[in-house]
Design brief:
This protein has four domains: 13-148, Alpha-Beta Complex (Cytochrome C3); 157-267, Cytochrome C3 (Alpha-Beta Complex); 285-404, Cytochrome C3 (Alpha-Beta Complex); 415-536, Alpha-Beta Complex (Cytochrome C3), CATH 3.90.10. The protein contains 22 helices and ten strands. It has helices spanning 13-16, 21-24, 68-77, 106-126, 136-139, 157-164, 193-198, 234-248, 257-261, 263-267, 307-311, 328-331, 345-350, 358-365, 369-375, 387-391, 400-403, 417-420, 449-462, 464-470, 475-478, 511-525; strands at 42-44, 47-50, 64-67, 146-148, 176-179, 207-210, 285-288, 303-306, 433-435, 445-447. Strands 1-4 form a two-stranded parallel sheet. Mean pLDDT is 80; it is low at 1-37 and 181-205.
Length: 545
């Protein structure tokens, strides 16, 4: 198959992928990978599990834990490179497989590993250097010498801005395919990726790799988890592009596994403060709904969504757009289609256990210290009765096309101040509350009621999420006065919590337990260190003389 023109201008194809295998391939080299002297395995970000025999069915021995950076560093010191262990493919790139291009025969693949690895280790030992194991059990160990601490790595807005300042032009990274044949001339749309999906099997001389700004999206827009005919898998494409560029330029970008996938080195990467917005033609505001052909079946009102607002709180588009940058309803249908992995639109938006869903993301916010004081004490995984209408406050889905031009901002859907203020006068909030439940052992506790309320109200005011979703200021009272009507005079705690606890209702703590779980639990969740002991709240009662 004829290779397409590459966008890596002036970069030798072999060097462009010279260290691709640093992060993705299972490749033994020339230094030891056997059990270390220490009892515990060594943890590293470059560990690759060699289990190639799984392709041919079950495996007879344990997989091999292979420290990749350790081997490549020794090779580099001896003036060798990846060609020592990898073969060049017909397209000019290096194969990620060890000493072969394909896995056609089980015995051949096994012998490639055993013959080459053991031979290299023996020669290294003969040269008087520290060498790797040559005995089966030292590589195929039940207790591996190494364990992987590989941390996934993403290209966020900060890294993007740093690269924008370094590269000559955007086509160093962003590219698409242009048709160059009789069927698609200049009058046609030469950038139709839908056509490219069908023509991946065609002769690649009909395509030309070019840059087009309006298509400058994520690598995931085209490159998927597996190689598709002439389109490389995401892992391969990213490593070839990034490592190849780092090798050919004076940039300080990493070329080893740990450089990207070690957690400590990730934290040490210099961040750009307030990087500019990535403009991919996305709307500032949108009304979320089912796909147009399903809106008649959809019942709930549309959801007003500030796209630009959410961008400001996230470092990458992948927080929501986990595959490509398409709208959610293009993959997730009401009934759940193949493109969305069978996940229905309702599940995609409401799954509390998914960081990609709206509710799942918002649930995580509840565990931040400013919010956790109340939310950690509440029943988890349960939404309030008015939660649906707070989100689904837009026009009916069947009317969306005719009325959507009227709406351009989330502010058009925010409740009026008069609708969210306290249902009682601010003067009715007591400054302090005396709690004398332990008066037989301690002095009554003086609870700084207004101070607590003011802190909670400030935390809500400072959070756009809390301000929008709490809906009414009365909810601040529910943090402590749960399961009771909001008002200036809520019922006493002992109205529900008895002394001692009710054995017939073990899920409802007694009065002592309720106070301490609520107060201490709130302090712990909000990282409040004081009071740290009993007398911090309850002054000790002195014995009468």
């Amino acid at each position: 198959m004829v290779q397409a023109k590459t966008i890596i201008k002036g970069v030798n194809l072999i060097k462009a992928t010279l260290l691709f295998i640093l992060l993705s391939a299972a490749v033994p080299m020339i230094i030891g990978c056997g059990q270390s002297d220490a009892d515990e395995p060594k943890a590293a970000a470059d560990i690759i599990v060699i289990d190639a025999m799984k392709l041919f069915g079950g495996i007879e021995r344990e997989p091999v834990s292979f420290p990749h950076d350790l081997h490549t560093s020794v090779l580099n010191a001896q003036g060798q490179d990846c060609l020592t262990c990898h073969r060049k493919r017909p397209d000019g790139f290096l194969s990620s497989k060890f000493m072969r291009l394909a896995d056609n025969d089980q015995e051949i693949v096994m012998n490639i590993y055993h013959d080459n690895c053991i031979d290299c280790h023996n020669k290294t030992a003969e040269a008087g250097l520290k060498a790797g194991p040559t005995i089966c059990g030292e590589c195929h160990a039940e207790k591996p010498a190494f364990i992987s601490t590989r941390t996934p790595f993403g290209f966020d807005k900060s890294l993007h801005q740093r690269h924008v300042k370094s590269v000559k032009d955007c086509q160093e990274c962003h590219h698409t395919l242009k048709f160059n044949n009789e069927q698609h001339d200049a009058t046609d749309n030469p950038f139709d990726l839908a056509c490219i999906d069908c023509h991946l099997h065609d002769d690649l001389e009909t395509f030309e790799m070019i840059y087009r700004y309006s298509r400058a999206g994520s690598c995931r827009d085209c490159h998927r988890s597996e190689t598709e005919k002439t389109r490389s898998a995401l892992e391969q494409a990213v490593h070839r592009q990034c490592i190849g560029c780092h090798l050919e330029t004076d940039f300080s970008g990493p070329v080893d596994c740990a450089g990207c996938h070690d957690a400590d080195r990730q934290q040490a990467i210099e961040a750009v403060e307030k990087p500019p917005r990535l403009d991919a033609g996305q709307p500032d505001f949108v009304l979320l709904a089912a796909a147009e052909n399903e809106r008649v079946e959809s019942k709930l009102a549309t959801v007003p969504f500030s796209h630009v607002g959410h961008e400001g709180f996230n470092s990458t588009c992948r927080v929501c757009h986990h595959e490509g940058t398409n709208a959610c309803n293009e993959c997730h249908t009401l009934a759940g289609g193949e493109n969305g992995g069978g996940v229905k639109l309702q599940q995609a938006m409401h799954d509390m256990n998914s960081s990609h869903s709206c509710i799942g993301c918002h649930e995580q916010k509840k565990y931040e210290p400013e919010c956790a004081g109340c939310h950690m004490q509440m029943e988890q995984g349960r939404l309030s009765e008015h939660a649906c209408t707070i989100c689904h406050s837009g026009p009916a889905p069947e009317r969306l096309n005719s009325v959507k031009k009227r709406y351009h901002s989330l502010d058009q859907f925010r409740p009026k101040r008069s609708d969210i203020r306290l249902s009682f006068s601010d003067r009715d909030i007591p400054d302090t509350v005396t709690i004398g439940v332990l008066a037989d052992q301690y002095q009554p506790a003086i609870f700084p009621h207004r101070k607590i309320v003011d802190v909670l109200r400030k935390n809500i005011k400072d959070s756009k999420v809390a301000t929008y979703f709490h809906g009414h200021e009365d909810l601040v009272c529910q943090g402590c006065h749960h399961h009771s009507p909001v008002g200036a005079r809520p019922p006493l705690c002992e109205s529900c919590h008895g002394e001692p606890f009710n054995k017939a209702d073990l899920l409802r703590p007694g009065l002592y337990g309720a106070y301490h779980r609520q107060c201490i639990g709130c302090h712990q969740s909000m990282n409040i260190e004081k009071p740290s002991d009993c007398v911090g709240c309850h002054a000790e009662r002195k014995a009468e003389s």
